[in-house]
Amino acid sequence: MPSDGAATQFARQVAAEAEPAARRALLQAHPELIDAAFMDALRDVAPDRAEDLVIEAMEVGRPQDVAAVHLVAALLQAWQEGRLDEAEKEHAADITADFVDTVLQTAEDAAHRHAATDTALILLKLARRLIRRFGFDDMMPHLHLCWSSLALLTDDDQTAETMVKAALADPRLDNQPLVRQALDINHGLVLLRQGRYDEAIAAHTALIGTLDDQVLRAAARSNLALAHAEKGEIGTALALLDDLERDCRRDGDHDHLVSVLGNKANLVGRLGLHDEEHHLREQTLDLASHPVGGKARDWQAVITSQANLALFHLRHGKPEQARRWIEMFRQSCERQGDHGQRVMQIRLEVELALVEGDAERAWSLGRDALDRLPDSVDPEYLALTGSVSRAARMSGRIDQSVDLFLRQLRLAEETGHRELAHAGLGHLGLSLHATGDRDGAHALFARMFAADSGLRHLVSGELTQFTLSSTREQMYAEVVKAVAEEDDAERLFHVVQGAKAFALGHAAPAMEGWQEFRATLEQGSILLEYYVHGPLAFCLVAATEFDQPVRVDLPVDQTRLEAAANVFRASLPWARWILRHDPFDGLDALGKALAEPLRPWLENRHTMVVCPSGAMSGIPFHLLPTGDGRRIIDHIAVTQAPSATVHAASRSRRAEGRKAVCLSVAAATDSPQSQTLFDQEARQVAALLSARGFEAISSPDIADWQGSAIVHLAAHGHFDPSDPRAGSLSMGAPVTLEVLARAQLDADLVFLSGCDTGRVHPLRGQEALGFMPILLGRGARSAILSFWPILARSSLTPAIATDFYRHWLVEGMPKASALRRAMLRWRDRPLYEWGGYGVFGCGQ
């Protein structure tokens, strides 16, 4: 088979030859190069003369097809001129069942390979006339199959259903098993388009077991994955597509591989895995543009990939890149005569105008389109409705926005399209809020967060929950911004709970109101719920005696906060070596922005619960300067949690067992002094735990840790902010975040005494990924972790650990207070040596 490059090179040679005789001789000399890829290349290198050159090539390489091409052309021209009856009589001897079959195959190829849907429809109408005129009745089921496939491709679901039902009721179908099976697949796809997801899943599941044909089986498997995805079961859908991708690569089925990669890109994009999505999008486009085995370019996949790449850049606020892909998409549609992408074209233009801030143009483009289009449950139509509704709201047409969002929400809920229903609830709430109907808006916001929770329960994989939040970021930021304009801190508090750390918060029991929440706080403690996004920055202060939270606006914005946090993180490598000079100046700016405005609320408190936001995640709050020459730890004990909801959930947990894991694992490359200190820490902690009645075990097998009340590990930690999923503990074999995410560590305390165990990487959507959120998400009531690389050769490390346990278990101090006391014992030493631990979760 010639490569794509060989086909293009040969096409250039043929197109460059001006003399017809010499051109024919060149074609005759290389008949092995005349294939679909070569024909495609001719259309690229010589678009003005492409059709004539293709006919010349076919006369040499595929002479049997030329007669059919000429006959089709003659019949179509006669039809257009109103003399089809005469032409049919003239060519009656050539109009055979094989010829009609060629017409049907050409129609399929035009639609699915070349995206020429208008041409395909004309050919199907011609085939239908010929079947009826010449009595080829047995071909009618095949015609209905081709017509239903075209209707599905162009989102004409009603026609698709009509064609499928007509074919399945045809008794002649009994002798055409492959056509029946293909119609059954299209019937399942009709169910999917109608939003009947459970029926579609049942139909495809039953059908797959009956299919022997590899192509049909792959199509059914792909549709089954899509049905699970539309139902919101993204983890199941991805697993099915992974299996199908493996089989397609093994079998060399590149046609279905293109479809599989495109569908996977859609799903990982919904999960917020943006780098992986972009890679899959480009991979899909490349495979569709450069098919193997001499096949023609898959223009349908090319056009779809170009549209999806445009949407990808629009979602990420990159209009210039998006504009380039939109133009390529438009040119491809024009080239192939594909008018079945009208909804997508309008949606892309509307979204581009919104990203560029031109809401008036977006509204003008979208309003007329929706007026011309009938209601549909197709996801593209629903997405366009949402885009136009946003344009209405952003251009000040609030009443039209409410009507359109109601329309979108009704259609999405009727069909069970959970993702679009979730988005519709949020946008409709924002529109109602803009009308002044705040009660109605908050009811919709509550339904939106409940819908998000429901969707998350269908997503497999703990780590996926964190990236999923990035897809909600813009919506939730708009909701918080709108509610922040009200003078109602209680409502703002509840909205923030849905917008922050929802990867963990969605699984926590929902609290009905402020009274229920404040009952979870401890007397004498103060909770600080921070929120920073764009220019909006505030802290909600909560305590048991407050009638409602108190809002404190902060003198910072997202850009300045991120810059200050980066300065601190950059100082840590130096702090390890320049211990005597205490280079923590990077915390000064953070202290001024985050701690000093809240000093009055810290007086007469014994514990401060900090719920950070965005870039402040992973910052040691206990070390922030308070403006009086001291740090927070000098005033009060500190514990951290991703959100108030997560903190309340951790307080409600109880670990009743008396088993305790106590283990040290030094590296073979550690110095003898380091190995001694590792072992010393484990022995001292184990002795103290045993004295308090705990059964201390030292198994490195994480399966043995289940049911332990305490887990104390002295081991090397690894954290790479560029790849937080790769974070691990060295326990002989690495214990990664993936491993921890599959474990159930319902311990009262997990103490990871190693380097960087408390570091996290802030993600979009008010999430942070690292050991801390994974431990709290897997059932731990609290964790003590390190903010930076702990000094393996320092005797302070085992001393702080054993002092903590003595203060907590022997003296009965709360965990946060016990850790504070253990660290302050060394207050006169360099900060890096003693200040690196923090309590997360429940510190009381």
TrEMBL record:
It comes from the Bacteria. Gene3D superfamilies: Tetratricopeptide repeat domain. SUPFAM superfamilies: TPR-like. It holds the Pfam family CHAT. Residues 588-830 form the CHAT domain. InterPro entries: CHAT_dom, TPR-like_helical_dom_sf. This is CHAT domain-containing protein. It comes from Magnetospirillum aberrantis SpK.
